[in-house]
From TrEMBL:
UniProt lineage: Bacteria, Bacillati, Actinomycetota, Actinomycetes, Kitasatosporales
Transmembrane regions listed in the UniProt entry: 175-195, 216-238, 250-269, 281-297, 303-326, 338-361, 367-388
InterPro entries: MFS, MFS_dom, MFS_trans_sf
Protein name per the record: MFS transporter
Bilayer topology term: Multi-pass membrane protein
Keywords: Membrane, Transmembrane, Transmembrane helix
Major facilitator superfamily (MFS) profile domain: residues covered: 215-427
Predominant localisation class: membrane
Family matches, as SUPFAM superfamilies: MFS general substrate transporter (SSF103473)
PANTHER family: MAJOR FACILITATOR SUPERFAMILY (MFS) PROFILE DOMAIN-CONTAINING PROTEIN (PTHR23542:SF1), PTHR23542
Xref: Pfam families: MFS_1
Organism: Streptomyces lichenis
PROSITE patterns registered for this protein in UniProt: MFS (PS50850)
Compartments, record wording: Cell membrane
Length: 427
């Protein structure tokens, strides 16, 4: 663990690295806490759980639509021209929700739709910045691991922050403060030198954008099921807590899962990994799936908490390795959009897991809910195994770019020889 901490400390000493990581995490707080903040606010306004779930679903749907579209806009127009205006519009959406409340319903639904649709793709933007900030591939890969670990911190601290703000002020104040912090975090990122200077590589015009990469599609198919597994655990975990008669147990289980991910991600980022990331991802997803299976035992609370921690150990390494694969598989000039698609697919899968696990728990009990997690993990592995050749192939345009560069180098060599030079001509 000490070596891992030293490696991360060295990474964060790089110019701009700490600022970009912290700014991105703060900027993502509104998104990380959105569903719970909407739930608390709606209930405080006298709305039903059904209404709260409906508003959260519309927020999530807007987010799923907006992330890849805004990611493509970032690739085309740069980060500051997209990220900060989007953060302002998203915050204005939540401010409108506070202003109008939940009655009448149409403005409330419109408000959360705007907030979700314009959530800035800071997560994908940060991963696009790491290569220019750090330079060395091994440091970039370690940054991906740190990114995955930091996500677990955000998803742990975020709900606690909402709880604190509600206790000190009110649910409306919690929504406003968190979204104000999100705007400040986005601003901190976009005024930085790396964000202002970053430009996407030239891209081939294509309406599918990043989705024209078969390898990326294979990865997204797998990560839908990883998200499904995680979403089902959140539902089954709550059912387990009710079953044992102690709702606080749910918080312990989720905290333990996050702790396991923190430990796993820290250890994963502590060393350099040889071999193709795609092959390593298959191993990690397989281990993740295996670690979901013991949850079906549903033992006593102490043992169950330990099993929850075990189930999270390989989550952050899977995410970190997937970030490397996205970087390798994304067509030239679409990296932010590609990362945003991963975020969207994971979120849609988590929503699907919640939707499936709920009826399973009602029909067959808590064990069946955790069985959905195991099934999701192995489905994710099967997708990767079925697409080995697809993931091994270069993304669209990569071969064309390589051929073009080789052709250009050959032309330069000929021109240089004709001019009396033995080395390729340098423009």
């Amino acid at each position: 663990m000490g070596g891992a901490a030293g490696g991360y400390a060295e990474l964060l000493r790089a110019p701009h690295a700490l600022r970009l990581l912290v700014g991105t995490l703060v900027g993502r707080l509104p998104n990380g806490t959105g569903p719970i903040a909407i739930m608390v606010f709606t209930r405080a306004e006298g709305g039903s759980y059904t209404l709260a779930a409906g508003l959260s679903a519309v927020y999530g749907l807007g987010n799923a639509i907006g992330q890849p579209l805004l990611g493509r806009a970032v690739d085309l127009y740069g980060q500051p021209r997209v990220q900060f205006p989007a953060a302002l519009l998203s915050a204005l959406g939540m401010t409108l929700l506070v202003a109008v409340g939940t009655d009448p319903l149409p403005p409330a639904y419109a408000a959360v739709a705007v907030a979700g649709l314009f959530t800035p793709p800071l997560e994908g933007g940060l991963r696009a910045l790491w290569p220019s900030v750090l330079g060395k591939p091994d440091q970039v890969h370690r940054a991906y691991a740190l990114d995955a670990v930091a996500q677990e911190v955000m998803f742990t601290v975020g709900p606690l922050l909402i709880t604190l703000l509600v206790a000190l002020w009110s649910p409306a104040a919690a929504l406003l403060v968190v979204n104000a912090l999100g705007v400040l975090g986005a601003l901190s990122v976009v005024v930085s030198g790396p964000s202002r200077n970053w430009r996407s590589a030239p891209r081939e015009a294509h309406w599918l954008g990043a989705l024209r990469s078969p390898g990326l599609l294979a990865l997204l198919g797998s990560f839908f099921f990883v998200g499904l597994a995680l979403g089902s655990i959140t539902v089954a975990g709550y059912a387990y807590a009710e079953e044992v008669g102690r709702e606080a147990v749910y918080g312990w289980l989720m905290a333990a899962l996050g702790l396991g991910a923190l430990v796993g991600g820290t250890l994963y980022g502590a060393r350099q990994w040889a071999g193709p990331a795609e092959r390593r991802l298959r191993v990690l997803v397989g281990l993740l799936a295996v670690c979901y299976l013991p949850l079906m035992l549903t033992p006593g609370t102490a043992a169950m908490t330990a099993l929850a921690a075990l189930s999270g150990v390989f989550l952050a390494p899977v995410l970190a390795c997937a970030f490397v694969v996205v970087d390798r598989q994304a067509p030239r000039g679409t990296v932010t959009e590609a990362f945003s698609w991963l975020v969207t697919t994971f979120g849609v899968g988590a929503a699907g897991g919640s939707a499936v696990a709920g009826p399973m728990v009602e029909w067959s009990g808590t064990t069946a809910g955790f069985a959905v997690a195991g099934a999701g993990g192995f489905a994710a592995l099967l997708v990767l195994l079925a697409t080995v050749r697809v993931l091994a192939a270069p993304p669209p345009s990569a071969a064309v770019v390589a051929a073009s560069e080789a052709s250009g180098a050959e032309n330069d060599r000929i021109e240089g020889a004709e001019a009396g030079f033995s080395e390729p001509h340098q423009a």
